[in-house]
Every structure is written in structure tokens, then in C-alpha cells.
Amino acid sequence: MLAAATSLFARTNISQCYVISSPGATPSSSALPAANFTPVFNVGPWKVQFAMHKTTNKRVSVCSFDKRSPELERCGPSARERVLDVSKVEAGALGRLRHPSILEMVEPLEETRSELTFATEPLLSSLSQSIPSASRSPSIELDEVEVRPRSQTRLSPHHSSLQIQKGILQLCKGLDFLHTSARLIHSNISPSMLMAIGRFQV
Question: How much is the CA Rg of the chain, to the nearest whole Å?
């Protein structure tokens, strides 16, 4: 009975309403349609998983923060609380922001004993994961016109200057909104913090 009660308290509205991809899943093993499958990836301490609403089939990305992660366990109690507090505040701020160049939160932040969770519009990867390097190929390609499923994407190490200019423009518009309208300062601008959904978003 105690186990059943613990399981009940560990559930969130997001976990009950969405089918969420698992970390080791592949397009063939996932319960989600192969055409919509996006591999699990990490953005800072947040794990990003593709998900689909059980009733409406709406596609989202579920971002979860493991409160029992080894990295967090190594922190002292006060540092751990500080990290969790900052994560909650930042996720809450994201939920209040509305702009085409700012990531859209679809489901608000939820907290259980083991994790923080919220859902956003579907994400492909961070920008850093889409940039090719000498050691790896990009995870996705930023397409100028549309977002295509991974299985249909042709990986290319070179983006056109127009795509790069559009991406920089999206970034500048997002930062301008944050600074002038929302009165917020983004103190961690980097390729790993820019999300790819077919365009750059802060």
C-alpha cells in the first residue's frame, strides 16, 4: 500500500497525459510514431524527451530535472537548494514569456519528490548539437523552411549565409524582448542554450 501511495505522489499531470520517449529508445522500439521520434538529449541539467498527448496527439518536448542526480548529490545542502530554487525560478519565468523567439512552455512546471518537469513546444536539439565538428556529425539540420523528421533530414556541415543570418536575427529579437520588455538578463547565452525547432530560440 505504501508503494502504491508513493507511486501516486510521483505521478504528474504531464506523465499521465503524455506518452514520453524513454532515454534508450529507438524509432523502432519507441511507442511513439517513428516519423515524430526525436532522440533524448540534455540541455544543461535538463533532460529533454519527445512526447505526444494521449488524446490530442499534440507533440511536445518534456524537460525534466533529476533532483537525485549524482552531480546534485555531490553538492552541499545549501548549494543543492540554491540550484533547485534557481531552476524553479527560471522555469517559472519561461512560462510567463510570450514571444516568437522565446521557447514556448506548453505545460507548467510540476514538482515531485524526485524531479522537476515541464513541457515545451517540440525541440529537435540544442544548437551546439546541430553544429558539426571534427569528431561527430550534427544531430539535426536546421532547415530554412520547415522542420523535417530526423529520418528525412540530410545532414550537411554547411548552412547557407541566409540561414545563419536568420538565426542571428531570431536570437537578437529574443534578447531584445527579454531586455526591453521583460526586463530580464539572459546570463548564459551559448550554443548549448539555444534551441533548434527549425529556427533559433532563446
Answer: 18
Report the pLDDT value the prediction gives residue 97, as an integer from 0 to 100: 92
Cell numbers at 195, concatenated: 534551441
pTM of structure: 0.73
Pairing of strands 46-53, 18-20: antiparallel
Burial of 194 by CB count in 10 Å (0-12 exposed, 13-18 middle, 19+ buried)? buried
String of b and e for 59-78 (b: at least 16 CB within 10 Å)?
bbbbbbbebeeeebeeeeee
Distance, in Å, from the CA atom of 194 to the CA atom of 69, rounded to the nearest integer, reads 23
Nearest to 197 by CA among 9, 57, 7, 59: 59
Q: Label residue 49 by pLDDT band (50, 70, 90).
A: very high
The answer to whether the CB of 50 falls within 8 A of the CB of 37 is yes
Q: In this structure, are residues 108 and 95 in contact, taking their beta carbons and an 8 Å threshold?
A: yes
Q: Which residue has the cell 537548494?
A: 81
Residue 33's pLDDT band (boundaries 50, 70, 90)?
Answer: low
Q: What is the pLDDT of residue 179?
A: 92
Q: What's the rounded mean pLDDT across residues 19-33?
A: 62
